[in-house]
Design a protein that fits this description.
The chain has one domain. The protein has two helices and eight strands; from the N terminus they run ααββββββββ. Bound molecules: zinc ion (ZN).
């Protein structure tokens, strides 16, 4: 056997693998509030007072278990953004579109979400944004369709 016959060819590809998982106690309540009440909820740390949104069961700053739910605003400030130009099977919108990092009023942490009704050439950090909810909501983060400038 020659060296050439022993050589294995390695091909790289991608697979799409649909799956389901339990969102858990904290995320389930967050998604149910989005779906049923169009309310964006966070959790407040009883030790350091940090308002975590998306909500977390444990504070990322001091590791204390959170036990208080607070409603944060549906408006906030754009912290940063990126524009997607290339398509991918798992994207929620057809490119080009923008993802933004948004600090909602009343929250101490940021949310990553889609930006809509916006001129991609005119997006700037510091812009005020507002959540736009879908009419038909299913109990997931895409119940917020996108954030638009206000
Ligand atoms: Zn804390």
């Amino acid at each position: 056997m020659t060296k050439k016959e022993e050589e294995a060819v390695i091909l790289s590809t991608r697979i799409v693998l649909p799956f389901s998982y339990s969102a858990g106690h904290t995320a389930s309540r967050f998604f149910i509030e989005l779906r049923d009440n169009k309310r964006i909820m966070g959790t407040k740390c009883p030790k350091c007072g940090l308002v975590l949104m998306p909500p977390r069961r444990y504070c990322g700053k001091c590791l204390t278990e959170t036990d208080e739910w607070v409603e944060v605003g549906d408006k906030g400030t754009l912290v940063a953004y990126t524009i997607l130009h290339r398509s991918s099977p798992n994207l929620p919108k057809k490119p080009p579109f923008a993802y933004g990092i948004i600090k909602l009023d009343g929250a101490d942490t940021n949310l990553v979400h889609i930006l809509g009704e916006v001129d991609l050439d005119k997006i700037k950090p510091g812009m005020r944004m507002q959540a736009v909810f879908k009419d038909q909501r299913e109990g997931n983060i895409l119940d917020i369709d996108y954030f638009k400038p206000i």
